[in-house]
Here is the input.
Amino acid sequence: MANIDNKALYNIGYGLYVITSNDGVKHNGMICNTVIQLTGTPLTVGVTINKSNYTCDIVQSTGIMNVNLLTESAPFSIFEKYGFSSGRDVNKFENTVYTLSENGLTVLNEYINSYMSLKVKQSIDLGTHVMFICDVTEAEVINNDPSMTYAYYHKNVKPKPAAKTAAPSSDAPRGYMCKICGYVYEGHPLPEDFVCPLCKHPASDFEPVE
Ligand SMILES: Cc1cc2nc3c(=O)[nH]c(=O)nc-3n(C[C@H](O)[C@H](O)[C@H](O)COP(=O)(O)O)c2cc1C
Here is the structure.
């Protein structure tokens, strides 16, 4: 049977984005890597969002979102703020200075080089995720700073695994680290259906740590 090496997918040239939305009471934002231009005429963009994310509920009910295109200058704290907690529990824009685009949604004041406003024209249920196919209603370039890629994030932004402190007592790893956000699951084995409590990535995105 043909082999499927998940690592091949890491070589897809993703970017990283903050998707902003508003639930009618407060602004919200989440980190996303699954943004792609689909067609040029009309100009459409696809965004894939996990159903467990509050942003998915908001976009399903409001039909609009902004994509903030992060630059290499974005620190890990931006990923923690928008990617490791949910707008269901916290107000991620409290104490944050932002601008509003014409659709009334937030545009980040730093760490982005462009933004675009999207209006959902079609939603595709993918089981765990919803893919939103959207028209672009506004788009602006703010500066020419290089965009943050997923590869750059893995290499330069996310924390490195903690150094080994003692010789392992057995062949079993001490735990497993999420390659996306650095969260460490203490114990062995990692349950097959484990989902990272911080960034919601699956067990296949974890690697053993000694
Ligand atoms: C590097 C990184 C990439 C992510 N990519 C996506 C993605 O493409 N789609 C998605 O639904 N969630 C993605 N997430 C997870 C969400 O950002 C995270 O679950 C967030 O807390 C959801 O916030 P919300 O509940 O306020 O919407 C990513 C997180 C990180 C750290």
Remarks:
- The mean pLDDT is 93.
- The first helix runs from residue 7 to 10.
- Residues 7-153 form a domain with the Pnp Oxidase; Chain A fold (CATH 2.30.110.10).
- The first strand starts at residue 17 and ends at 22.
